[in-house]
């Protein structure tokens, strides 16, 4: 949910954007028509979450993720690092991405940032309400089908899929090839999840796991076809 910037899913502010996006009603993405479609790109997911699988509390709060406890954690402060001043591999991940696709709410939170986190990367936004051409940094699509067709036509090889509902839609459509999930050592009991119900199981192959100072464990999975 989420989510550029530096640490985990693109930094504390971006992760907060994705969390808020996951909890808002918005564009309903069809999930069945694209399954099995032969496209030029693969979708990649990079998310931070609690051990019990939530990317934010129900109200979008991320203080547990940034170490602020129940009430701490600001929009710009508290972002975790990997113990060596690094970003848990997010910059390396982003360097291998050709383009991004996200939902409207995630985009609208990121849009005002003075430092646009995806400079040089095409950003595609799923929205029925954003005016086309409103922001030269993005391309707006009215449906999942339209977005996938555009991503395919552009010849992208690897696309970063971000935002809770967008991740779920691409998973359901069979368009995600790999997921990197960074689990923070905390249980929050309930919250927002990027996965939700799926028409069928999505079998995964474990690629690798590494741990960081502070107890975060990051695992990468490949979707088995």
UniProtKB/TrEMBL annotation:
Query: Which regions span the lipid bilayer?
Result: none
InterPro entries per the record?
DHFR-like_dom_sf, RibDG_C, Riboflavin_Biosynth_HTPR
What is the official name of this protein in its record? Answer: Putative Dihydrofolate reductase
Domain of life where this protein originates: Bacteria
Q: Which GO terms describe its molecular function?
A: 5-amino-6-(5-phosphoribosylamino)uracil reductase activity
Q: Where is the Bacterial bifunctional deaminase-reductase C-terminal domain?
A: 46-217
Organism expressing this protein natively: Blastococcus saxobsidens (strain DD2)
Gene3D superfamilies, per the entry: Dihydrofolate Reductase, subunit A
Q: Name one GO biological process term.
A: riboflavin biosynthetic process
């Amino acid at each position: 949910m989420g989510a550029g910037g530096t640490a985990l899913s693109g930094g504390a502010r971006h992760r907060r954007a994705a969390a808020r996006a996951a909890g808002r009603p918005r564009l309903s993405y069809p999930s069945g028509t694209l399954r099995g479609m032969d496209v030029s790109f693969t979708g990649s997911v990079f998310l931070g979450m609690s051990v019990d699988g939530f990317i934010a509390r129900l109200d979008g709060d991320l203080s547990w993720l940034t170490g602020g406890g129940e009430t701490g954690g600001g929009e710009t402060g508290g972002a975790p690092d990997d113990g060596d001043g690094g970003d848990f591999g997010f910059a390396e991940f982003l360097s291998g991405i050709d383009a991004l696709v996200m939902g409207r709410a995630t985009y609208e939170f990121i849009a005002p940032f003075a430092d646009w986190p995806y400079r040089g990367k095409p950003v595609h936004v799923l929205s029925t309400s954003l005016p086309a051409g409103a922001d030269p940094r993005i391309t707006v699509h009215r449906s999942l089908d339209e977005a996938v067709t555009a991503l395919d036509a552009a010849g992208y090889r690897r696309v970063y899929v971000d935002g809770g509902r967008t991740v779920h839609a691409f998973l359901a459509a069979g368009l995600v090839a790999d997921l990197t999930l960074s689990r923070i050592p905390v249980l929050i009991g309930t919250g927002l999840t990027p996965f939700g119900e799926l028409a069928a199981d999505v079998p995964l192959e474990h690629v690798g796991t590494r741990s960081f100072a502070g107890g975060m464990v990051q695992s990468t999975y490949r979707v088995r076809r």
